[in-house]
Amino acid sequence: MKLIKHILVVVIVMLATNVALAQVTFQAKVSKKKLGVNERLRVDFEMNKDGDNFNPPSFNGFTVVGGPNQSVSNSWINGVRTYKKTYSYFLAPKERGTFTLGQATIEIEGEIYKTTPVKIEITAAIDKPKNPNDPNYVASNNIHLVAEVSNVTPYLNEAITVVYKLYVAPTTGVDSWREIDVPRYDDFWSQSIDTKGQRVQNGTFNGEDYRFLVLRKTVLYPQRTGKLNIEPLSLNVSVQVPTNRRDIFGSRLMTRVNRTVSAGNRTINVKPLPEKGKPADFSGAVGDFSFKVTTSKTELDATESLQAKVEVSGKGNLKLFNLPKITLPSSLEVYEPEHQENVSTTTRGMQGSISDSYTIVPQYKGKYPLPSISFSYFDLKTESYKRLSSDEIIINVLDGPVNTASEASNTSNGIVKQRVETNSNQFAFIKTKTDFKPIQKEYFFKTKLFWSLLLGPFLAIPLAILVRRKKATRDADVVGNKIRRADKLARKYLKGAKKQLGKKEAFYEALEKALHNYLKAKLHIETSELSKDRIQSLLLERGVETNVVNDFIAIFENCELARYTPITNVTMQADYDKAAKTISLIDKQAG
């Protein structure tokens, strides 16, 4: 009897085990039930038997960013077969709140099975979303774009360098990248350094081993003081990141994702140059310089030419200041200087030399001094102003005509005295004979003046009628009157700009207003339409030559640049002359 009971127990257990093994399971599993709005949610729909006609829920409140990914697991343990099939989805929350993942369905062996709904709570964004199964999250942790600034507290016009480095973790690969937003450096003079041929280097980021590549190097010279913003560089990068799947050899499989990375905004605090000790003739030079004035010869004959060269060399903002001008005696004919630049830009800033070469032609015999001139700059090493002066140079004109107004009577010291000429006929102004004539009486009646005054009013009547008709026609010409008023206003502002020479802000403001009013009159457009591209296209359509249009646009750019750049009186005079000349050319060429 006991044996029969034992057999029955064994049979019941075996039947229960077979029923359990034969039972179908189909369920939904989530990576987490509470997550931030900037995190990702993984949902797995698992079943222990193969089925057909799988239908996922609608995923209301989420965006599907990945999936469905299908995986199958089939194993034997102690003679028992274990089967699992999974459909995986990756979801991004659309907003905060509580959402329900609905039921998924599948057909297994002719029966329909459904999952249990799952509630998910979405909170505010967290500082650092974590989802190691999400390739985008893996990429965000393994790739970084960094902007390294050499100096965050420079002086005005002191060079700083911004180096952009792309750091990539050793387990991550980069296929390609594309710049989608490039910094403009509005408050800086900028120069890009060639980075072609750069190789991948090993380094560390946040204390971990990384590989990095230098993408960009830019030298900046701040043009105004205070807190300045360096805009970010943004890239779209194609990244290869590892997954949890492995190939038949056990190596992890890689997947490709596109990732947008940004270097972030950087702020620097630009210090003004000290006012204490600033020379009156300081033109904005900052760096370490040398200064000299040389001539191609010191002895020559009249009407021959020589070159006088004013040169500054060294390291600093060589392209951002003006050289001092030489002053010469009026007896020497001097031509406009030829400006030359031999400047290279590296990560340490600009270095080289700039010079002005003057062609000088003496007209008379004598000795002429080229006075000493000086050049001042701000030395970054000592943080103080320095002044360099040239030596006086004597130009000895050996042969040529003598200046009748002033002959060099003392050649040893170059002192010029007035020469007195004697004349044997110096008393010729005394008259010894007369040529008196009798006075003839003249009458006004019937003279030319009489007839002119008598007939003039009658002759003026037709002229007055003609003038009046022309005036009426002109008054009716609304467009023409608008053009004439604008031309008059432009001349007024040009005249005003000339009065402001020496006052940078007032001069360039008046000059810019004059150009705007001239364009309004010439092109019949309003100020709101005045973009550089539109100005260029309209002038070219009117038949204005390309070089004249480019000169006109360049004057506008000079007006904008003058707000941030030291400007001398010579430059302002040159801009005024160029504006007057360009307006004249446009009037002649425009249809």
Task: Provide a quick synopsis of the model.
The chain contains eight helices and 32 strands.
Keywords summarizing the entry:
591 residues; alpha+beta; Immunoglobulin-like; 4 domains; seven-stranded mixed β-sheet; five-stranded antiparallel β-sheet; 8 helices; 32 strands; BatD; BatD protein
Provide the fold topology.
Elements (H helix, E strand, L loop, with lengths): L1 H21 L3 E5 L3 E3 L4 E7 L4 E4 L6 E16 L2 E14 L3 E5 L3 E4 L2 E4 L3 E6 L11 H8 E7 L10 E9 L4 E9 L6 E6 L7 E5 L2 E15 L3 E5 L3 E13 L5 E11 L3 E5 L15 E10 L3 E2 L5 E11 L15 E3 L3 E9 L2 E14 L3 E5 L3 E6 L4 E6 L3 E5 L9 E4 L4 E3 L30 H29 L1 H22 L4 H20 L8 H10 L4 H16 L7 H21 L2
Parallel strand pairs: 2-10, 21-28, 22-30
Antiparallel strand pairs: 1-3, 3-6, 4-8, 5-6, 7-10, 8-9, 11-12, 12-16, 13-18, 14-16, 15-16, 17-20, 18-19, 21-23, 23-26, 24-26, 25-26, 27-30, 28-29, 31-32
Helix pairs in contact: 4-5, 5-7, 5-8, 6-7, 7-8
InterPro entries: BatD (IPR025738)
Protein name: BatD protein
Pfam families: BatD
Q: Give me the count of strands.
A: 32
Oligomer state equals single chain
Q: Structurally, how many domains make up the residues?
A: 4
Label the overall shape.
Answer: elongated
What's the average pLDDT? 80
What integer value in Å does the Rg equal?
44 Å
> In percent, how helical is the residue content?
10-25%
Structural class designation: alpha+beta
Q: Could you say what the CATH topology of the largest domain is called? A: Immunoglobulin-like
> Distance between the terminal alpha carbons, to the nearest Å?
125 Å
Q: How many H/I helices?
A: 8
Low-confidence stretches: 16-21, 407-429
Q: Largest sheet, if any? A: 7 strands, mixed
CATH class of the largest domain: Mainly Beta
